[in-house]
């Protein structure tokens, strides 16, 4: 934990029996695009860990931008 206040993610948790295609988080992500719906993102190393996100990979969402947590 980073000590930051966490915000709940909007939307419903996908079915583990029938998960969505592509990134399983795309139905709940405000930054998802068409690629997210069809292609599962690969894990990328970042400072302090890893992330699997097309928006970060494509630089549509900077790693430093934490505003997405408040958008839920």
Structural notes for this entry:
The C terminus is likely disordered. The protein is α+β, with helices and mostly antiparallel strands and 72 residues long. The two termini are 19 Å apart. The protein contains three helices and two strands; from the N terminus they run αββαα. The protein has a two-stranded antiparallel sheet with strand order 1-2. The longest helix has 5 residues. It is globular.
What does the average pLDDT come to?
83
- The strands making up the biggest β-sheet line up spatially as 1-2
Beta-strand content bin: 5-15%
Quick one: biggest sheet?
Answer: 2 strands, antiparallel
| Element string (H = helix, E = strand) | HEEHH
Gross morphology is globular
Helix content: 10-25%
List the keywords.
72 residues, 3 helices, 2 strands, globular, disordered C terminus
Summarize the structure.
Helix content is 18%, strand content 8%.
List the SSEs and their pairings.
Elements: H1 34-38, E1 44-46, E2 49-51, H2 54-57, H3 68-71
């Amino acid at each position: 934990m980073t000590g930051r206040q966490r915000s709940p993610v909007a939307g419903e948790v996908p079915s583990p029996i029938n998960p969505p295609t592509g990134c399983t988080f795309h139905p709940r992500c405000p930054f998802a695009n068409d690629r997210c719906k069809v292609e599962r993102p690969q894990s990328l190393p970042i400072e302090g860990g890893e992330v699997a996100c097309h928006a970060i990979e494509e630089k549509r969402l900077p790693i430093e931008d934490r505003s997405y947590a408040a958008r839920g």
